[in-house]
């Protein structure tokens, strides 16, 4: 091979090498764009899943208090004493406030995201406000949890928006209740930095927050509670927006299986001392006609129904409707439902879907493996078609959505018990 041929071959090799490098560069660019598209697609899919989950949980949160309001409104007229009627009215009032709070949060989130939030500042006696907050949770806090506010040594009046501040406290305490089964929830305020700043706090002895998730807890629609069926995922996002719009900041510290503390602070504008007036609201009652249940003369002839329900007001409604017709057993979670089914052998099971420890679907699967003949009726505030299909697939024989009519509950139970 002479010199000219060698140079031609080297030139061709160089050209091929250049074209290969160009092709590799284009391939790398294409792979990079493909990876970006895949990441965007995954983010879009995750966002879509979270919004779907959000809507499902929102439906549950709305239907749960509606079930108590409708049911107790219908059975209240059957109460034989004023004390009974007042206890039912308290349950209705409590669930009405719960529903109103949820609707307000939905509307507030829409407003603040659109930049339409407004504040009305007045001189607020913080001690009176703290006491009012405790009254809000009078019927929502179980006996196993001590809800208390840390009373300061002096009274403080602050120029602020009392409604918005109360809303932040309410959301944080509600969040603490979802993650605390026993122990305490302490809330309050303290003056810091030579009284230039005021710091509010809510501290619980609950399950704590996973370190991997703690950076996302203030994101709307990205709620770990929603993924675990513990809530609707709006409260913390709304807290952050409100606090920041009021010129403050909010932080969280948490340890798994130890507890969580939320703190939010503002520049302090006000005085130490002073008394503010408080307002008291009252509501009127309305009697609604309902069906009277029949009675049995011999309890040994009554069939047994196991009611798996973690919401006390929902169980109380079922108990009032069915106690004169059937012997009732109460399971507070899925594990208790499985255990009581094996020990008591009920004739029928009313199964809530969202419960702590073990959900109703897993409990139904276990129960059906042990005794496939026991009818299981899902009684849930999750009422989308997908939820019904999941319940049927888990082994539930039927599905009754909350809020339900008393007549429908009696009819569906009678159908499965051959009455």
Question: Can you put this structure into words, describing what you see?
Answer:
This protein has 419 residues and is an alpha/beta fold. Helices cover 48% and strands 18% of the residues. The protein has helices at 3-75, 82-113, 126-136, 162-179, 224-227, 235-245, 312-322, 334-344, 360-370, 385-394, 406-416, and strands at residues 122-125, 145-150, 156-160, 183-192, 197-204, 249-255, 259-267, 270-272, 304-308, 327-331, 348-351, 376-380, 398-401. The strands form 3 sheets. Strands 2-4-5-7-6 form a 5-stranded mixed beta sheet, covered by helices on one side. A 5-stranded parallel beta sheet has the order 10-9-11-12-13, with helices on both faces. Helix 1 runs antiparallel to helix 2, helix 3 packs across helix 4 (162-179) and helix 4 (162-179) packs antiparallel against helix 6 (235-245). The chain starts with a helix and ends with a helix. Residues 226-232 and 274-297 have low confidence and may be disordered.
CA-to-CA gap between the ends? 104 Å
* Strands side by side in the biggest sheet: 2-4-5-7-6
Per the principal axes of the C-alpha atoms, what is the gross shape? flat
Largest sheet: 5 strands, mixed
Count of helices? 11
Arithmetic mean of pLDDT: 81
Which range does the strand content fall in? 15-25%
What class, by secondary structure content?
alpha/beta
In N-to-C order, the SSE pattern is HHEHEEHEEHHEEEEHEHEHEHEH
Strand tally is: 13
Helix-residue proportion? 40-55%
Please compute the radius of gyration using only Cα atoms: 29 Å
Contiguous runs where pLDDT drops below 50 for at least 5 residues: 226-232, 274-297
């Amino acid at each position: 091979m002479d010199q000219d041929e060698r140079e031609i071959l080297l030139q061709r090799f160089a050209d091929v090498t250049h074209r290969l490098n160009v092709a590799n560069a284009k391939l790398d660019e294409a792979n990079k764009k493909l990876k970006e598209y895949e990441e965007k697609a995954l983010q879009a899919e995750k966002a879509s899943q979270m919004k779907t989950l959000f809507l499902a949980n929102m439906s549950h949160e709305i239907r749960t208090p509606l079930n108590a309001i409708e049911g107790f409104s219908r059975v209240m007229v059957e109460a034989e004493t004023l004390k009974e009627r007042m206890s039912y009215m308290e349950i209705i009032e409590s669930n009405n406030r719960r529903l109103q709070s949820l609707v307000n949060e939905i509307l507030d989130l829409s407003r603040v995201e659109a930049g339409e939030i407004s504040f009305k500042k007045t001189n607020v006696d913080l001690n009176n406000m703290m006491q009012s907050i405790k009254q809000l949770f009078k019927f929502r806090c179980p006996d196993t949890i001590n809800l208390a506010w840390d009373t300061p040594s002096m009274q403080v009046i602050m120029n602020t928006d009392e409604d918005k501040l109360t809303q932040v406290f309410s959301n944080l305490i509600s969040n603490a209740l979802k993650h605390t089964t026993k122990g305490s929830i302490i809330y309050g305020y303290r003056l810091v930095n030579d009284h230039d700043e005021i710091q509010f706090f809510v501290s619980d002895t609950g399950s704590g927050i996973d370190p991997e998730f703690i950076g996302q807890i203030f994101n709307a629609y990205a709620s770990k509670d929603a993924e675990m069926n513990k809530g609707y995922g709006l409260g913390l996002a709304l807290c952050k927006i409100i606090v920041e719009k009021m010129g403050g900041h909010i932080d969280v510290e948490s340890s798994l299986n130890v507890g969580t503390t939320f703190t939010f602070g503002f520049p302090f504008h006000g005085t130490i001392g002073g008394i503010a007036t408080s307002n008291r609201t009252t509501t009127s009652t309305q009697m609604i006609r309902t069906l009277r249940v029949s009675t049995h003369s011999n309890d040994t002839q009554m069939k047994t129904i196991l009611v798996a329900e973690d919401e006390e007001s929902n169980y109380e409604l079922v108990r009032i409707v069915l106690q004169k017709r059937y012997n009732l057993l109460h399971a507070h979670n899925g594990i208790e439902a499985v255990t009581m089914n094996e020990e008591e052998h009920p004739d029928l099971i009313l199964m809530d879907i969202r419960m702590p420890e073990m959900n109703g679907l897993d409990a139904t699967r276990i129960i059906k493996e042990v005794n496939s003949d026991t009818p299981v009726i899902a009684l849930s505030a999750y009422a989308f078609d997908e939820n019904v299909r999941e319940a049927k697939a888990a082994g539930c024989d039927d599905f009754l959505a909350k809020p339900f009519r008393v007549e429908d509950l009696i009819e569906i139970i009678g159908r499965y018990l051959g009455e």
